[in-house]
Design the sequence.
């Protein structure tokens, strides 16, 4: 009977793998199987990519088969385990030393990259990986205040990002203010717009709140596109002043950074300076968020997230609670936007689309709403994974010279979301440390914060 049951399981696994492969073939046929290209006469020609289509279909079928034989039994056994009242020893060890190790690593990251790649090959790794990831880490931590702590679903978070970027660009070009003056101004202006958004949505929750915030983000983008006299429309704003090192610019002139300190000119100095600048801003965001969570306003955010009616019955002013959440989250987005404009030297509406809001929200959801460490890990995986895909040129030898791995970024995002929903519904880091405790602080295990367990 055991052998018969094994045969039945194998047959079911093969059947599920075949059905999954057929579904994948039907879904990917119009997306991957067919491709339109323009020939030398500017005519649109329909071509096919059968090897790539069959390869992806086979990978999906093999993945479903591996899930049936390996991952699904492990999930079933994991569901039968008794609920642990406290994290295990190795989780406690990792939780104790992970944060200090991570902070130390990001501080010495430029040194490690320069030691491995030299001055010539380090700019890409510090800029595209270090700075780009830290920008999204900061944005994720800012949105985590609104979504993770206060429980307010915000789909237009990129609007505050755009307000900070355009505020810095316009004020810097018009009045010549320095980066250090405009950084707090950009955060203040973005916070002001966060309060303006908060007032109309005080009575909205759930899907209705998401729709209004989505509309707010699109309104800001449309205004930027159509107010050509101020924002330049689709052409954007170029020639944005770059930040300096205490008044010393990073250029090749005699008053530049390299000449003042007697160094050979290299663009790496500016890149390293920007890296530590965004690292300081990200750490400031994390520090303020952690401190706010322990204050009464932070506990009010968490109470609002759990039950707004109970929160109101306890005498908490939900109006002020929502407005402070929107204002604080928007302020950090404004800081990140001003840094983005100073780093790029050029901004346009294409940098502030809904896809950016979806990416930031995905980082918060995948990392674990309310978890600082989880958001950082999710940003590293999603943004760093996208940048790594640009380096996978060897895949062109397998799937053809026209294969571009970056085109399948959103497909991988969706796949990651499905895996997280199956494996860890509360995100990568679902452990919660209470902000208020009696006699002893104890972290709540992941098994106790799943749906149905409190």
Sequence:
């Amino acid at each position: 009977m055991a052998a018969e049951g094994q045969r039945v399981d194998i047959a079911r696994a093969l059947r599920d793998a075949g059905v999954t492969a057929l579904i994948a073939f039907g879904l990917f046929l119009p997306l991957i199987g067919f491709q339109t290209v323009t020939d030398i006469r500017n005519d649109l020609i329909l071509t096919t990519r059968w090897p790539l289509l069959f390869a992806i279909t086979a990978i999906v079928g093999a993945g479903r088969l591996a899930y049936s034989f390996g991952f699904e039994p492990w999930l079933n056994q994991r569901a039968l385990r008794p609920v642990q009242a406290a994290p295990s020893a190795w989780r406690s060890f990792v939780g104790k030393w992970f944060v200090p190790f991570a902070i130390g690593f990001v501080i010495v990251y430029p040194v490690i990259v320069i030691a491995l790649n030299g001055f010539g090959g380090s700019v890409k790794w510090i800029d595209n990986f270090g700075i780009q990831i830290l920008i999204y880490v900061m944005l994720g931590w800012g949105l985590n205040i609104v979504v993770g702590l206060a429980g307010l679903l915000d789909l237009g978070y990129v609007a505050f990002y755009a307000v900070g970027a355009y505020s810095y660009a316009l004020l810097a070009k018009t009045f010549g203010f320095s980066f250090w003056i405009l950084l707090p101004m950009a955060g203040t202006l973005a916070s002001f717009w966060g309060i303006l958004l908060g007032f109309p949505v005080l009575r909205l929750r759930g899907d209705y709140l998401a729709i209004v915030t989505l509309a707010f983000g699109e309104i800001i983008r449309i205004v930027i596109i159509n107010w050509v006299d101020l924002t330049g429309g689709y052409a954007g704003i170029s020639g944005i002043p770059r930040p300096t090192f205490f008044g010393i610019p990073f250029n090749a002139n005699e008053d530049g950074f390299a000449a003042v300190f007697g160094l050979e000119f290299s663009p790496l100095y500016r890149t390293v300076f920007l890296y530590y600048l965004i690292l300081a801003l990200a750490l400031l965001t994390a520090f303020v968020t952690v401190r706010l969570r322990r204050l009464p306003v932070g506990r009010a955010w968490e109470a609002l997230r759990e039950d707004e009616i109970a929160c109101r019955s306890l005498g908490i002013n939900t109006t002020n609670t929502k407005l402070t959440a929107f204002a604080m989250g928007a302020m950090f987005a404004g800081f990140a936007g001003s840094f983005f404009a100073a780093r790029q030297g050029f901004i346009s509406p294409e940098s502030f689309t809904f896809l950016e809001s979806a990416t930031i929200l995905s980082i918060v959801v995948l990392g674990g709403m309310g978890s600082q460490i989880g958001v950082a890990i999710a940003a590293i995986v999603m943004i760093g994974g996208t940048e790594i895909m640009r380096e996978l040129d060897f895949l062109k030898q397998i799937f053809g010279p026209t294969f571009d791995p970056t085109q399948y970024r959103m497909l991988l995002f969706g796949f990651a979301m499905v895996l997280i929903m199956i494996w860890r519904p509360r995100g990568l880091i679902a452990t919660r440390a209470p902000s208020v405790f009696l006699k002893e602080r104890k972290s709540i295990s992941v098994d106790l914060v799943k749906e149905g367990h409190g």
Remarks:
- DSSP finds 17 helices and four strands in the chain.
